[in-house]
Input
Amino acid sequence: MTKQIASMREFLRTGALGSLTTDATLLDVARTLGAPSRFLTEHSESIPTYWCYGKLEIQFDCDAPYRTDWFQIEDALYLEGDFEFITRDLVLALEGITGTTRPSTLLRSGIWELDDTIVTIGALADDVTLNIRSGSVCVVYRVGSTFVPDGDALRYVSQGPLSEIIREIDGRSAEIDSIFSLRSDKDTLTAVASLNVHAITGSQYLDAI
Output
């Protein structure tokens, strides 16, 4: 297997993690990355359609040829230092982007066209959520709601002035939960509409800081 160093900036810009893209089938991934460290069959009974390589998790379609539905860097909060070793043959160069990189810092990094980048703010369980979506890439942030009056995250993001909410979120320890690469022909990351309260561009987000 060919050893690869993947670029985090390129991953965020294009959705490609080295040679891994959502065009890959299950067998393509096996040839490129080898056997996964673990896999699940719960969604397809007998075919292992969810593969894990450390922080890299891949969901395949349930029907042959088992094309990649999406893949993600899970537990992204723990990304730190210069490199993340995905497998013995695939290393992710972080290029200054870690699990605690603020949304505003990521948006100012020059990776995306800000007017084509969508930031959604909402709530999930007891947490305020913030997602950045550009093309096939979605960066999922989670922010603890200890600063929210009465702990009701959904009420907080629904009723407060948006500019104040943005400054509060960005100034606190927002943490990257996951980074997804999604198929362009199949939006497999379906959000609960009522939990995404605000949707603005990256430019509008930075204007509010």
Remarks:
- Residues 75 and 177 are 6 Å apart (CA to CA).
- The two ends are 46 Å apart (CA to CA).
